[in-house]
Structure formats: C-alpha cells, structure tokens
Amino acid sequence: MTVEEMLADLYQEFSHPLTPPPPVRSQFLAHLNKGHRAILREPGLERLRPTLQGLRLATEPGRALYGLPAPILRVTAVTDRVSGRPLDVRDLIWLRATDPGLTSSGAPDTLVPIGQKPIARAPASTGIWVQSDSAADVSQTLYLNGLYTDGGPSGDLRAALAGVTPVRVGLGTFVDVTSVVLNGSCEGRVTLTDAATGGHVLAEIAAGQIEAKYFCVQFHPTPSAVADYYVDGLLPIVPLGDRDTPMLPEEFHDLLVAYARMREYEYKGDTARFQASLREYTTGLSRLRTHVNSQPAQIYVLGRPVRDAIAREGPWFPATW
User: Fold this and answer.
1) Model confidence at 305, in pLDDT bands (50, 70, 90)?
2) pLDDT of amino acid 160
C-alpha cells in the first residue's frame, strides 16, 4: 500500500471526504509516520532497514577516526574483503582500556563506533573555515558550537558565507565540534575545512540542506596503510510521502493504518474504539515480529549442514574447518 492509499482508508474510516481539509491530512500523515518509526524501532524489527551492501571506507595512514559516507545509525559488521576477515566491533571503554594513548598502529583488527557527529574527522589545531562552491551563497549564516583545545566550550559562533571565499569561524582552535547548521539552504555545496586552503575536509553540507550528519567510527590499531573496508549497518527511517511505501513486508502495511486509527481515537477521547484499535495494532505487531524473526534461514536447527569456512593458517592445516 502507498501512503496515499492508507490516507484514503483513514478518510473513509473517519467519514472525511477524499480531499479533506489540510489539517486533517497533515494529522493523519503524522500518525502514519509516527507509526512507521515506532514499528521500525522495535527490538528485532531493526533488521528491516539494513544497508543493501557494505559501505566502502578507505583508510589513510596515521588516521584513526572516520565519518561514514552515508547516513547510518548503527554498525553491525565490518569486513576486510582482501584478507577475507571480519573486524571486531567494540566500544569506547574497551579502546581506552586497551590503548589509552592510541599509540598502536598497523592493520586494524577492531572498529569502535563513536556515534553521530556533524563532522567526519577531528579538526587540526589550526581553526575552521567555511565556504560554498557557488558564488551566489552570500546571504546565509553558519552557526557552530564546539570545544576549544583547552576543553572550553565555544558558545554560538556565527560566520556569514562569502560565496567561494573561505571565511574563518571564530578565532580559536577546536578539538571537537558539537553542532553545525545553516540558517538557510544554499545553492552550492558548503564545505568546512581546518585551513583556508589545502586543509582537511571536516564536513560537507549538500545543496538544499542545512546540516550534515556522519556516523563516526575509529579503527584500532591506527591504520598504517591505505586499505578498503566495508561497513554494514542500519539505515535511518525516512519520512513517508504520498507515493512512498513503508519499509515493512507488504502484507503488514495495514499495520500503519491500525496505528493511525489508534492515535486518532486516542486524540478524540473515544476509549472503546481506542482499545479495539490498540488490540488490532498489538496483535499485528506481534505477528510482524514473528514473521521477521522466524525466517527458516534464521532459525538454528541442530544437525543442519552449514557452509565450511576457509582456513587461512597455512598448508599444514585442513582447507576447511
């Protein structure tokens, strides 16, 4: 079902014309989007929004921290396809206990998810500059919050864009950036760097957008060579439009309609119909959870043959194990 078909179902349910007043349509669409997010956040149902394939991430010698090149909310696996080995995924507490000074370097064997940040790499201790690749972008203002190298907060810093001319943001040097946002979208791509010319690119805000988000990860040991790694994870939940379809199996699309009815009856104070819709929604959610988590290939069966992994210990060991 498309969102348009779901809305038509709701209009009929609540005796609205097929072209209702805009506030009615907005409220029903909000119900559907809230239900979509609520369902896809459920434990076990997150597997409905994985990356289609691993996102390529190229390492640089001496650089440990990276921002993934696409929106991602959680890392589920990291692989080195050349050597055919997966990397361990551990947390920041493990990293600080294992290598407090971050002195180890070599071929990474571990990836540590850091979380979502407005920049893709740590800034050098020089400063931050902003510029657009369009000369027409001269009326927008960039707002930035960060931490100076002495640990103090920068507060709200402003920088008026000057088209393709780099403009420095504040006067201090930064160790971290917590927020970057434009007061309006730009015609060109806005870039933040840690030098007026020839610096590292910290973040890029696409044309028509007002902010950038990266899921940052850290390799351990710090890479000592250029290499490609592939990261699998969970994609964000995109708001639904009229012609969109939910990120759910098709036979469970009407679960969003049940959720919207439940919320609308709750809003109207109709307790009896709210309870009936709640039962319909919770029953459907339970069936969806079973459908997703009970696929034959995902259920462990004692004695089922599995594909042998390839041993790489050398010629004195069996080819499979």
Assistant:
1) low
2) 95
Cα separation of 216 and 208, whole Å? 23
Separation of alpha carbons 298 and 107, rounded Å = 32
Total-model pTM: 0.76
Fill in the amino acid letter for 202: L
Contacts of 268 (CB under 8 A, 6+ apart): none
Q: Which two tokens stand for residue 45?
A: 């149902």
Whether 170 shows a pLDDT value over 60: the answer reads yes
Helix (H) or strand (E) holding 274: helix 271-293
Per-residue pLDDT band at 320 (split at 50, 70, 90): low
Integer Cα distance of 316 and 305 in angstroms? 25
Nearest-angstrom CA–CA distance, 315 and 33 = 56
Distance CA 155, CA 151 (A): 12
* Residue entry with tokens 């917590």: 178
Residue type present at position 51: T
Can you tell me whether residue 156 is helix, strand or coil?
coil
pLDDT, one tens digit per residue, over 73-94 is 888 899 998 888 899 999 999 9
- Does the pLDDT of residue 304 top 70, yes or no? no
Q: Is 165 helix (H, G, I), strand (E, B) or coil?
A: strand
Query: Helix or strand or coil: residue 74?
Result: strand
Q: What are phi and psi of 276, to 5 degrees?
A: -65, -45
Joined tokens for residue 192? 């933040």
